[in-house]
Every structure is written in C-alpha cells, then in structure tokens.
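Sync notes, pocket subgroup
Present: LS, DG
LS reminded everyone that the earlier model was apo-only. Rerun requested with pyridoxal-5'-phosphate included. Inputs:
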Amino acid sequence: MEFNIQQVRNDFPILSRQVYGKPLVYLDNGATTQKPRVVIDCINNYHTSLNSSIHRGVHFLSDQATEAFENARETVRRFINARHAHEVIFTPGTTAAINNLAFAFGERYIAPGDEIIVTEMEHHANIVPWQMLCERKQARLKVIPFTDQGLLQTETLQQLINDKTKLIAVIHVSNTLGTVNPVADIISLAHRHSIPVLVDGAQSVQHLSIDVSKTDCDFFVFSGHKAYGPTGIGVLYAKEKWLEEMPPFQGGGEMVDVVTFEKTTWNELPFKFEAGTPNYIGAIALAEALKYLTSLGAGNILEYEHQLLRYGTEKLLALGYVTLYGSAPDKSSILSFNINGVHPYDAGMVLDKAGIAVRTGTHCAQPVMQHFGIDGTIRASLALYNTTDELDILADTLQKVKTMFG
Ligand code: PLP
C-alpha cells in the first residue's frame, strides 16, 4: 500500500484539534501514541453491541466476545510471529508484564547468589522489578554500559556472563536515545550459555518489524497504548517452555483447573497466566491497532519515520546550540536533546504554549541521565503521522526559546 501521510493523518481524529488556538503538534509518542479511528470505533462498538464477559458465559454475547478476544490473541501472534497463540499472555501493559514475569521467573529459577543482567539504558520498568527480585532472593544485578554515542558496549557482555547468570533483560529501542539494540546478537550469545533473554519492546513494536521466532527471544513485552492501541492492555510473549515451567503470577478465576481447599491445579496455557476478567475490549482494540499498522506496511512506516528522523536531526543540529543525545547508526525516531544553557523544563513550557507536545525530564531512565551528568532532556518522539512541517514548527519555536532564555 502507498503511504499517504495526509490520509494517515485523517485516520487520527485528535490531530485536527487545536491547543491554545494553535494546531496540535504531537511529538510525545514515546509516552503514548494517538489512536486511529478504527481503534476508537472498535472500543465504542464493543461497548455498544457486544459487551459481555468472556470465557464464562454460555450465551450469545459471551460467545461472540470470547471469539473476538481469542482472535485478538491470534492477531498479536501473527504480528510478532510467535509460534503459538498460547504464548501470548495479555497483561495491563509493559510494566505489569515485566513485574509479573519477574515474580514468576524469580519464584522458579532465582536462588541466592544468582545474577541478572540489564543494560545502562533501560527504562525503570526493566530495572526496578529485577532489582526488587534480586533483593528478595539475595541475587545480584549487573549492567551492560553504553557509550556516549548511545551504543551498548556488547563486548562487555561476554565478561559479565558466568555460570550464575540466569537472565538478560534488554531494551529493544531506547526510549531516551533511540538506539536500536542488536538484540539478535545478544540473544545468540546468551543462548550459547543457555541464558534466556527478555526483550522490552515498548518502543520497538510500533516502529520495527518484530519476529520473536527469528530473533529467538525467550520473552518479549510491549504496551498497547504506545502502539496506537488503548491503555490498560499489553502483552507478555513467552516461549511455551517457560510458561509451562513457571508458576502463575496471580491466582483467581479462569487460571485454575480444579480448586479444592487442599489443592488447586492450573488451567492450560495461556489461561494459567490470565487470572480474573481480562481487559478483553482492550485486547480486541489492540488487535485493531496492529491490523492498522499491518495495512500501512512495516517497511513503509520504517522508511517514513527514518526520513522524519533524518530531517529532524538536521534541523536541530543546524540551530547550532543544541546538544543531541544518542547518535547510533541504527536509530529509531526519537530526538532527545537540550538547548545549551536552558533547562529542559523551561523549554517544554514554551513549546507547550506553541501547541507542541514534547516530554521533558528523565523519561523514566535516570541512569541514562546519570551517564551524561544531566538533569533531563527534551524528547521529541516521532510517530508515523508526524510531518516535516511539524519539525519546522519545533525548530522555529526552539529559536524563540533560545532568544528568551539563552
Ligand atoms: N519500557 C520502555 C522502553 C518504555 O518506554 C516504557 C514507557 O515509556 C515502559 C517500558 C513502560 O511502559 P508502560 O508504562 O506502558 O507500562
């Protein structure tokens, strides 16, 4: 399909609104993306005509909703190319997926003295749950550092690995630096030592073509709301082997087979890991978002976003007073920067009044800020509906910021 930016923009109702009387320039897509009409309509339609709890009812509406929910699971499976639909566990989001995994994996595999490796560029969601697990189990967290260019020093991984290493958890695309990490290489090295790898795909699934079978990752997590879907829904993909071996992370309805006061047995996959009434409408709407991305074409999205990234990078550097963080050759559409001599928060306030939504601060990645010795950055994170005109507006407004504060 031809990638027609005006048509794409028309698919997102919110993009035509104004803020402070100015056209909205939404460049905070790393935090959350806007929703296409198909997703909004899907949520409305389900509440209007199909709402019913899944898996439990014997009536028409429950049957229909159950079928739609399981079809959504199959859509996710296809989108990330998992081998089995039962390897797709719906969760409330990336953070919930990692916390749940840290609990179940920790219960089954982590003992005192064991080690878990993360990277210096992780989002807090892929640091803190592992840190909490290490504290619970007297295990140790180790860190792969990155260079000032924003490249993981993967050559150190070989030295960090030993026979106590139980898991490597790595961010696929950095939410602060944009770096696309060489996850396939990391996985292949880890597997040579029989170590499983978790890939945090919160910033990759909406930009890159994902193939969990090809990269052979053991776990892959992402959030619906960052991939044009709704909030409150996300995915934990895990290889069948791990799901079979790990205990459930929550107990309750639907995840059980037989319950007696003496003993309870677990339901089959994936239900063993989906206790309680799931966010089925969220899952169904997430599937709509993924179908929408598929209809645009992963290659088209990648090419268009790369053009935007190149254009935005040149624009910012041409200003002459901007420090850009993250210049990996393989980079996703994130521009993290500071205006020399201006606090990011001050810049963010001025940009806001011009109708421009960016994120300022540490982006839930304080170790990245500590690496550079800075308080925070301004982050313009680009999506498939952004335009070069919007980047022009950004650059012009930054010039005003510099004049006001510089
Ligand atoms: N991981 C990365 C790389 C992220 O960028 C984010 C959110 O910004 C998260 C995890 C957490 O996602 P959520 O807040 O949707 O659980």
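DG: The chain has a mean pLDDT of 97.
LS: The chain has two domains: 5-30+297-405, 40-295.
Action: DG to write up.
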